[in-house]
Amino acid sequence: RSADVPPAVADGQPPTPPPAGPAWSGERERQPDPTGAGEITMYYQPQIAIATGEVVGVEALLRWRHPRRGMVDPGELIQVAEQSAVMRLLTRRVVDDVVEQLAKWTAAGTDLRAALNVSVRDLHTGEVADQIADRLTRFGVRPDRLQVEITEGALMADPRRVLATISQLHRIGVGIALDDFGTGYSSLQHLRRLPLSEVKVDRSFVLGMTEDADDAAIVRSMIELAGALGLRVVAEGVEDERTWRLLHAAGCDVAQGWFYARPMPAEELTGWLARYRPVRPTVTADGDRQR
Ligand code: C2E
Ligand code: MG
Ligand code: MG
Ligand code: MG
């Protein structure tokens, strides 16, 4: 963001999310926004199988294009949206966009899996699972092309309700990823009780790996634990080659981060995929000690 962009929270007021009008709750044609509150759009970040360098999927990440502030990251938007009914509409929009995008990729012969994030509140009713089932059918997208990322925080609030929604998603055939693994409570319980297909090691641990031996040890243990339970492990926040080598040496399955690519609009992703040449580890058993 440039220096003249106002701070995220001006005058102590949280930013006002865009209006929950039909233009962003399911209508396919985006209208220029007459309210000036901007536009919601999805960015996609590649996920790469570490051993082969192959692109195995993308994570869909929400962006809010604000007319004055430019592209706003989802953190602040989600935090505000979660206090109100706006979150529900945002999630609906995310599901619509991602499933439609998956259908486009499939039609174009691009075999990608996409993950989308849902928030705590989304799991308190079965609505999101119903919507996902409906859109997959309507767009003719195979359920195993889609993955839903949940955070451990979601599980604290209303475990029974949340568990019911997660089970419903699992029955549909959609993958479930436990996001930000290691930052929540009783993670081990969740690994045991949930029908997970994937665990995502939180980027706070991954970012510290090369500098902090404890972080590196924690990440290695998480990888080992998830592997022993038969879960795919994704490391997020892989920013450099040294981290990527450490992860390879530790047996991590998939990496996601700026080392490969930043999140980008779907139109850009097409070009990126065409230019991409697999990044493969060239070394070695002691790659983790190379500096
Ligand atoms: P997350 O699901 O853990 O997403 C990963 C975050 O790491 C993304 O931040 C991504 O841009 C960032 N990231 C990826 N690679 C790197 C890297 O190499 N270095 C660093 N420093 N960061 C990297 P982003 O896009 O700002 O999203 C933040 C959080 O907002 C997400 O964390 C997720 O919890 C939430 N979020 C994003 N999109 C949605 C959405 O559509 N719905 C919901 N409910 N939450 C969303
Ligand atoms: Mg995520
Ligand atoms: Mg995460
Ligand atoms: Mg997060």
From TrEMBL:
Q: Which residues form the EAL domain?
A: 23-277
Residue ranges, annotated region (Disordered): 1-38
Top-level taxon in the UniProt lineage: Bacteria
Protein name (Swiss-Prot/TrEMBL): Diguanylate cyclase (GGDEF) domain-containing protein
Give the organism, scientific name.
Answer: Micromonospora siamensis
What stretch of the whole protein does this chain cover? Answer: 562 to 852 of 856
